[in-house]
Specification:
The chain is of the alpha+beta class. The protein is 18% helix and 30% strand. The longest helix has 33 residues.
């Protein structure tokens, strides 16, 4: 099933799969979601939403008194109406089969000058459609220009030519006309008119059906296929391969492998020498402070800071070089991996 939405000057088509399942959105001309269609119990159900409401009746300008419904079953060859309750924009939805049935009609320009399409029985092509005027369309042959002109005789219903709204235009082969849910293809003297309901009536004095001839049933089982030679073998060109028999010597320079870098460790004396010098100075200061305490010239409390500084310097003199050496060795091992 395909759904054609007519919204003002725009025409939008949405196709639904043959397998009735899932949820699909009918979009508007701005490619925004308009109405949701879901497959339920083997039927397509169209549902209203907060802004867009659907109806089975033609909507007037007064939407406040419109007969809106929450949901409805989508049937082929039906017309549905919808409106945006916020923007007051109205839509017409036509449900058509995925593969339409077309009536192939031929008309001769040399014998007839125009063809009318409408609901009235006097029209050359009578269409049973609620959204068609008594005389809706006319297709005329312009003798001066030799072209074919289509005219929309009723402004109440919009005519679209190649998805563009138009009331009057010259037709060229391959043009697609759409009006009120009916497609019309124009191929020169051939018109393909949508006849999904199979109730289309035409004037046989002006129009005639195109006869589709079928191929006769021929038994090809005994037919022997022949091999046809398009060129003589002497005219075929094939380039033979070329081999060079001369061997050339090439010299390549190969760089030697990278040598392992030699790691030279700094002697321990160079590491602890600065700390040893500072330690000797602090030791002298500590010994002096200790002699003052022992001789009674000063108390332990007075010389505590000097003794503490001496002890810290002596400990750091021994500890920090060892920690630094261990860290350097560990970092080298880690960099190798």
């Amino acid at each position: 099933m395909k759904i054609v939405v007519e919204s003002g000057k725009n025409l939008i088509k949405t196709s639904l799969p043959e397998n009735i399942a899932g949820n699909y959105w009918i979009i508007d001309s701005n490619y925004k979601n308009l109405l949701n269609v879901s497959g339920e119990n083997g039927k397509w159900i169209i549902k209203s939403n907060a802004d867009i409401k659907i109806s089975n009746n033609i909507l007037n300008d007064d939407l406040n008194n419109a007969d809106f419904i929450e949901s409805d079953v989508l049937d082929i060859n039906r017309i549905y109406y919808a409106a945006n309750t916020v923007t007051k924009e109205k839509y017409i939805l036509y449900t058509l089969p995925s593969y339409e049935n077309f009536e192939n009609l031929i008309f001769d320009y040399s014998k007839i000058s125009n063809i009318t399409i409408g609901v009235d029985n006097s029209c050359d092509i009578v269409v049973k459609n609620l959204l068609f005027a008594q005389k809706q369309l006319t297709i005329e042959y312009d003798k001066q220009t030799g072209g074919i002109i289509v005219k929309n005789l009723s402004d109440k219903y919009n005519l679209f030519i190649n998805n563009t709204i138009c009331n009057q235009s010259y037709l060229t082969r391959g043009d697609l006309l759409f009006i009120s849910g009916i497609y019309i293809y124009f191929f020169g003297t051939l018109l393909l008119v949508g006849n999904n309901r199979e109730d289309l009536v035409f004037n046989s004095s002006k129009l005639s059906k195109r006869v589709m001839y079928e191929n006769p049933n021929i038994d090809y089982s005994n037919v022997v296929d022949r091999e046809i030679s398009f060129f003589d073998k002497t005219k075929y060109f094939q380039r033979p391969p070329r081999f060079k028999r001369q061997i050339e010597n090439k010299i390549f320079n190969i760089d030697p492998p990278t040598q392992k870098e030699r790691q030279e460790e700094m002697p321990l004396i160079f590491t602890i020498a600065p700390m040893l010098t500072m330690g000797m100075m602090s030791m002298v200061s500590g010994v002096t402070a200790l002699q003052k305490v022992l001789s009674g010239e000063s108390t332990v409390k007075e010389q505590f800071s000097s003794l503490l500084m001496c002890g810290c310097m002596l400990i750091s003199m021994i500890l920090f070089p060892l920690v630094q050496k261990f860290y350097t060795k560990h970092k080298k091992i880690k960099d190798c991996f």
